[in-house]
Here is the input.
Amino acid sequence: MPWINRRVLQNFDGLLFGLVCVVLGIGFVNLFSATQPGAAGALPSEFQRQLLSLLVAAIGFSAALLIDYQRLERWAPLLYTLSVLLVLLTLVLAPVTRGSRSWFLYGGLSFQPAEIAKVGLVLMLAYWFARHPPDQDRRLRALLLPGLIVAAPVLAILLQRDMGIAVLTLLIGATFLLFVRISLRSWLMMAGIATLAVTGLFQFAFREHQRERILDFLDPARAPLASGYQAIQSLIAVGSGGLFGQGYLSGPQTQLQFLPTQHTDFAFSVLAEEWGFVGCVVLLACYFALLIWGLIIASNSKDSFGALLAFGVVGMLFWPAAINVAMVLGLTPVVGVPFPLVSYGGSQLLANLIALGLLMNVSMRRYMF
Here is the structure.
């Protein structure tokens, strides 16, 4: 059987592709403003690198789209294992960058394997639950092996000292709990264990700057010129946007660069300042429509693996967006999670477009029997 069935192209999902292009377009327009040096000339270097990353990510999107996802199902354990090993390899080969070993660096190029590990995790959990339907066993021990599947990349990322991506990966894995019908007693037991684990991590595993971020979330004014600076500047940018915004390339927080990491973690703050509440609603509406369409694709899938895979991709896109918006609005601590398809970052763009290629894969093959 050929790897690529040309007949599936007849079922190309134009709506999904269009929504992805719209969100990407908003992201690139926003990125130009966030990195714009304020003088005529060449494009900002970050903008050029993101364009190059988009070309690479488009190749990943095409590969994930064209190879039958049922073939990928057989490869899921191998792809998952390779992604975890790639994360572990950074502990040996990657240099220390901003206090963590998360990036492979070569010249001006960089790559963060933890982003790809999220795709591997979604594939593996879809593979596992397709073969072990989660509603057949209501006991807590039914979650032991899926828990180990999630724990492997999470622990590997924690060893890199990247708490934000580790929490995000854990949440992506927890998305599949929506399919599990264990008893209320088991849920309460899990909640108790999680509370103890978080308390222990805060006391003994978190580094000083990570504890400071949580304390700043509870009281941003405690260190307005130090650890609380990002949160305060973000709220100023969002608040100054008003209903229609300050205007494109006219946001003072952005153009005067008062807002740290405005092209990555706080890209949504830039959008809010320059386009206001209306611009934020447009972006979130398009993004929400993308997620809803993903759930419709999952519900219409012809097999359980395709449905679980599509649902996992939706979870992979939902959690970072929700955390990023909440972080920008001061509703969660600053954890360094970018907004998918909008924030600057080649690795996250590659991982997200591969995931969307898988979603498109399931969508186009739901008519193939």
Notes: The CA atoms of residues 108 and 134 lie 45 Å apart. The chain has a mean pLDDT of 84. The radius of gyration is 21 Å. The chain has one domain: 9-35+45-365.
